[in-house]
Amino acid sequence: DGGITQSPKYLFRKEGQNVTLSCEQNLNHDAMYWYRQDPGQGLRLIYYSQIVNDFQKGDIAEGYSVSREKKESFPLTVTSAQKNPTAFYLCASSGVAGLSTDTQYFGPGTRLTVL
Amino acid sequence: AQKITQTQPGMFVQEKEAVTLDCTYDTSDPSYGLFWYKQPSSGEMIFLIYQGSYDQQNATEGRYSLNFQKARKSANLVISASQLGDSAMYFCAMRLMNTGFQKLVFGTGTRLLVSP
């Protein structure tokens, strides 16, 4: 089945540690995105990538880093510089970067808790 | 600045009845798209329906329809014949079409509870 997978589903981290969240898609989509969701709030964009080897900061990129070495993969690293990393992280992808009517499809999410 | 407002934190509806979830938006750009997503307790965001700012007719997808009133800047989601499985968070989102990438701006969501 085509879709977006995220792993792990739950992640616990000690303060001061970097962690990497995985996002893989087999939809042959060009564009991929990372969002953060806090309780009672909507989603906020962390990073996005329209093409392999290229990515841009979103609204809340501080304390995060990404890479896009393969079309199907867009891992997110939450660094120790992120002051409040406990949140639900959602990865999304869309077919053609910049196409106005294209829809973003989401993965199942990773819930990160900092202990 | 672009903004989405969902004023209903929670809504209750009985099974088989229709329910309307409100969404208003703010943008000065004439070209935009409006989306509704469903988020069940599992967390995944499920795409429901899309409406473009230049679309002449209201969008429909099965039991979902979008009541698009451009002059009022509203894009309410109507769910007909509610089912127990419709209980979830619902998010309205907007995307500007003239930007270089597909940034979605989300509202804070409405929690829908369908009772038997």
The number of strands of chain A is 11
Query: DSSP strand (E) fraction of chain A?
Result: over 45%
Percent helix of chain A, as a range, is: under 10%
Derived structural class of chain B: mainly beta
- Please, how many helices of chain B? 0
Q: Which term fits the overall shape of chain B? A: globular
Please describe the structure with a list of short key phrases separated by commas or semicolons.
heterodimer, A: 115 residues, mainly beta, seven-stranded mixed sheet, 11 strands, 0% helix, B: 116 residues, six-stranded mixed sheet, four-stranded antiparallel sheet, 12 strands
How would you portray this structure in words?
The complex is a heterodimer of chains A (115) and B (116). Chain A has 115 residues and is mostly beta strands. Chain A contains no helices and eleven strands. In chain A, strands 2, 4, 5, 6, 9, 10 and 11 form a seven-stranded mixed beta sheet that branches. In chain A, strands 1-3-8-7 form a four-stranded antiparallel beta sheet, with no helix packed on it. In chain A, a hairpin with a 2-residue loop joins strand 5 and strand 6. By secondary structure, chain B is mainly β. Helices cover 0% and strands 53% of the residues of chain B. Chain B has no helices and twelve strands. In chain B, the strands form three sheets. In chain B, strands 2, 5, 6, 10, 11 and 12 form a six-stranded mixed beta sheet that branches. The radius of gyration of chain B is 14 Å and the shape is globular. The N and C termini of chain B lie far apart (41 Å). In chain B, 35% of the residues are buried. The mean pLDDT of chain B is 93. Classes of the chains: A mainly beta (115), B mainly beta (116).
